[in-house]
Design brief:
Helix content is 69%, strand content 0%. It is mainly alpha-helical.
Length: 309
């Protein structure tokens, strides 16, 4: 029963991260991700319309970060959007975005005009001060802000969490992020055990993820998100490469994990064809967050019949 409970918690963590990350990439026909280049008014219209389709109680960090950065950087667009609020859901999103942007006086006036006085509480962390550590939603806030402005400092703030983590945590997060970026979960036909291994390694006491576990998943989702965006955004790709190369320690870890992941993909293909037990053992060790170097040993690849002669 305890094992089932832990597995359920792990799946819940993964499901929440998958849902959060997908929202960052699937808004308004993907026009959101390139808005900083196009400034497409039609994209804004579709994005605003999408707010009403978001389930109640669900906070989309990418959307909030997008509007917070847009409101802060473009007073003209801010005024246009605030003067044409079409729904209560849009008004609530704009209020949160104004608060995150540090536009406190305007947020209070907007709240008063739209009956949102009850939503005013405390001093929220401003977008400019967000530094992700153990809250995946913070990654999304900064991703949305980048999409609105093209300001690469938001991407750097996401990656700083990876750079500042200890070696093992960085390596594990890169591995998990690469796997999620490629498959959105486990490789085809393989068991979903990597996150369970992380839960055992970093802790899920009383069926709740520890601070270390949440940081691990936050970094992994950052690797996934930034890597996914880099596939279609040259600026992010160049910034990711620059950021990693600038830190010799991180560069070595990243290169090792990328090489190990390439070998893993090769072994998965071979295993899918013949279900060799030695291949399965090598794959399981990698999926359980074993040392990347073990997978890079030449003897991890099966010999061809000619080699065995």
């Amino acid at each position: 029963m305890r094992r089932r409970s832990k597995i359920f918690v792990v799946f819940a963590i993964v499901a929440s991260l998958v849902g959060v990350a997908r929202q960052a990439f699937a808004q308004s026909d993907d026009c959101m991700s390139i808005f900083y280049r196009t400034k497409d008014a039609g994209c804004l219209d579709r994005l605003v319309a999408s707010l009403d389709r978001t389930p109640p109680g669900i906070e989309n960090g990418a959307i909030i970060g997008f509007f917070a950065a847009l409101f802060d950087s473009s007073p003209q667009m801010r005024r246009t959007l605030l003067d044409a609020v079409h729904s209560n859901r849009a008004a609530a999103t704009y209020f949160i975005a104004l608060s995150k942007a540090g536009l406190a006086d305007e947020a209070r006036r907007f709240a008063s005009a739209h009956g949102l006085e009850g939503a005013i509480s405390g001093n929220p962390t401003l977008l400019k001060d967000v530094r992700p550590v153990s809250v995946p939603l913070d990654n999304d806030l900064l991703i949305g802000a980048y999409m609105a402005t093209g300001d690469l400092s938001y991407v750097d703030h996401i990656l700083e969490n990876l750079r500042d983590s200890r070696d093992g945590m960085a390596a594990d997060a890169i591995r998990m992020g690469l796997l999620m970026g490629k498959f959105g979960g486990p490789a085809p036909g393989r068991p979903n055990i990597m996150t369970i291994a992380a839960c055992r390694k970093y802790g899920c006491p009383r069926n709740q993820p520890s601070e270390d576990m949440m940081r691990e998943m936050t970094i992994a989702s950052a690797v996934w998100a930034v890597g996914s965006l880099a596939k279609n955004d040259v600026a992010i790709k160049q910034e990711l490469d620059r950021f990693v190369r600038a830190d010799l320690r991180l560069s070595a870890i990243y290169e090792t994990e990328q090489n190990a992941f390439a070998r893993y993909l090769t072994l998965v293909t071979l295993w899918s064809a013949n279900k060799d037990s030695s291949l399965d053992e090598a794959l399981m060790d990698y999926e359980r967050l074993g040392a990347a170097d073990a997978l890079l040993k030449p003897d991890r690849l099966p010999q061809s019949p000619d080699d065995k002669k």
